[in-house]
Amino acid sequence: MSAETRFADFVRANTEALVRTAYLLTGSSHGAEELVQDTLVRLYPKWGRVESADVPLAYVRRSLTNGFLNQRRRASSRDIVTDSVPERPGERSDEDDLVDRDEVWALLQTLGHRQRAALVLRYYQGFDEAQIADALGCRPRTVRSLVSRGLATLRQTVSTDGGRTS
Fold first, then answer.
1. Residue 136 in contact with residue 117, Cβ under 8 Å?
2. Which residue has the higher pLDDT, 11 or 125?
3. Is-above-0.85 flag for pTM?
4. Number of other residues whose CB lies within 10 A of the CB of residue 126
5. How far apart are CA 63 and CA 65, in angstroms?
6. Distance between CA atoms of residues 63 and 69, nearest Å
7. Quick one: how many helices (H) and strands (E) in the chain?
8. How far lies 40's CA from each of 16, 57, 60, 61, 150, in Å?
């Protein structure tokens, strides 16, 4: 099987999970799809190195997270923050689920980019401290600090405004 075929198989098998992770990082479906596409385009020429990693999906997720953090560092990438997240077309959910999702996203928006990335990797992806440290390029001690401070900020925000972030 050629490298191109293996790459295409990987993309088919993992795009949905990568887009979900990217959505939690970026907050928009368009931004998530763009982040995943940029990550895969950047990794395609190095696909042999990605495949030789112990866990290729973890390698791609780390690259995705790094791409998000690098994008946030650029002044031109500043998004305009709105008070609500639009629904994605075609998605069927209960009204309560939509409200909860919007509130969680609004709360995540109050965090810095590294804290948000650490919380998404910890609580959404289920990564342990070592995996998060590897993905963010820092020490496990820094991960504990990012998660702890991020959760403290979220608790403070919820207790200050009763959970209403809009």
1. yes
2. 11
3. no
4. 8
5. 5
6. 10
7. 8, 0
8. 13, 11, 8, 10, 29
Q: Please return the burial class of 134, using the count of CB atoms within 10 Å of its CB with bins 0-12, 13-18 and 19+.
A: middle
Whole-number average pLDDT of the chain: 83
Euclidean distance between CA atoms 126 and 17, whole angstroms? 13
Q: How many angstroms from the chain centroid is the CA of residue 107?
A: 15
Quote helix, strand, coil % in the chain, to nearest 5.
Answer: 75, 0, 25
Asked whether 60 and 14 are in contact (CB, 8 A), the reply is yes
Residue 27 has a pLDDT of 85
Identify the residue with better confidence: 92 or 22: 22
Tokens found for residue 72 = 């946030």
Query: Is pLDDT above 70 for 75?
Result: no
Tens digits of per-residue pLDDT, 9-59?
999 999 999 999 999 888 889 999 999 999 999 999 999 999 999 999 999
Query: Who contacts 103 (Cβ-Cβ below 8 Å, separation ≥6)?
Result: 163, 164, 165
Question: H helices of 110-166, where?
Answer: 113-119, 129-136, 140-161
**Mean per-residue pLDDT for 136-165?**
85
Q: Are 81 and 108 within 8 A, CB to CB?
A: no
